[in-house]
Design brief:
homodimer, 211 residues, mainly alpha, three-stranded antiparallel β-sheet, 3 strands, 4% strand, globular, DNA-binding
Chain lengths: 211, 211
DNA sequence: CGTGCGATGTATCGGTCCGATACATCGCGG
DNA sequence: CCGCGATGTATCGGACCGATACATCGCACG
């Protein structure tokens, strides 16, 4: 998951670890707490070893300079390689079961702007299926096993069930939207859909809407 | 977290691993997917080594019998020890930061029937605080950084924000309910609050309703 | 002027938990 | 009688977290 997210972010621009974490936190804030350095740095090493990212060595001020004072480690900027882009595309295409769990789905969704429509639809539907299953499980427990459980546990299940139903509805809207070929914005009542998205030209896909 | 849940469940009755997993799944179904054996069995060993649970050896049919045919491993039933109960009480009392994250809160909530009212209140309020912080973070991103993010990412944040607001409201209700000393049931429309819970005498608290 | 502190920045270590895998037993239907 | 799905215990490698350590930079406050 982290691998996927890093590869996705580095496609927008080269970054160093600290920055990467901040961007990750901003982009995935709805999904999970801040990523830990204890996973970030080892993963960066792994990706570099695999050849999917490379160090881009912070502009050393016209060479000559920098007399290695105190060894001056400085920030390590990473950028994605061609192989890395390939890897990312491959990770998008093949959807394992982990693509539909809470974190996996969230991360994939966050990079939908770099995902082609067919895949978006597939992921959205897979997620819906998974949530529907969880919902049925909760309904079962609330129906059949209700007597065995205490009031607090039951309340927890009810709240969970509520969240499931809500998410299914959300997914339905997104799927319908996606099928009709329109932009992602869902009619939300408040917080009217800002559109525009002046981000860097989404490479290849997403540019269905030709001006 | 797993340690806490196991100790909590084994207080209701002795169980073997497989059974434990099923009960865990039923009780925590709203929170997380089924627990993995890859964590369950090692944790059981750890708890046993610490002296918090012991093997209760499935009734060996009046001894003598069982000629070790094919070594007959059979099911291993665990039960909680006095030290284990102490440990559980201690884990309830001390609330670290992990008590308020999604999983930690869920697990603690699931055992609220074994938690005294003051602690319930403290946990509920801690959780509310945490969710409010997450909510503010999302509002910030949706306000300030909205232009930098693509439409899908924004939609994800909106959905997350929605979930936060909903959970805060849920917590408010629970807290109000708790303060007024009443039972946990939240006015939900459907599924009126069943009470009873004939499990072993909840130690000290929760037994407001004496027959 | 210095000094200390919070933000920036890289890195490791131990521990928890997951997913895959393996393997044995039991009861039941074909 | 055979297979197959449920029951049941167990291990291994890997992902990720939380705590911790340490170094640099800028600036506010004395």
């Amino acid at each position: 998951m982290l691998e996927f997210a890093i590869l996705g972010l580095l496609q927008e621009s080269p970054m160093h670890g600290y920055e990467l974490r901040k961007e990750l936190t901003a982009k995935l804030g709805a999904i999970r707490a801040a990523i830990s350095y204890g996973s970030l740095y080892p993963t960066l090493r792994r990706l570099q070893a695999a050849g999917w990212i490379t160090e881009a060595a912070e502009t050393p001020a016209t060479a000559e300079e920098v007399p290695a004072l105190t060894s001056r480690r400085g920030r390590v900027v990473y950028k994605i390689t061609a192989e890395g882009k390939e890897r990312f595309a491959q990770l998008i295409a093949q959807a394992g079961p982990e693509t539909y769990d809470d974190t996996g789905f969230g991360v994939h969704f966050a990079f939908f702007a770099r995902t082609d429509q067919a895949t978006r639809l597939r992921i959205l539907e897979g997620r819906r299926r998974k949530i529907e299953e969880r919902r049925e499980g909760l309904r079962d427990v609330l129906g059949r096993a209700a007597e065995r459980l205490d009031a607090y546990t039951l309340e927890l299940q009810r709240h969970g069930l509520d969240a499931c139903e809500r998410e299914v509805r959300w997914l339905e809207e997104l799927i319908a939207n996606e099928r009709s070929g329109r932009a992602p914005t869902v009619p939300h009542g408040t917080a009217g859909g800002r559109r525009e998205d002046n981000s860097p030209p989404p490479p290849g896909e997403t540019r269905k809407e030709r001006p």
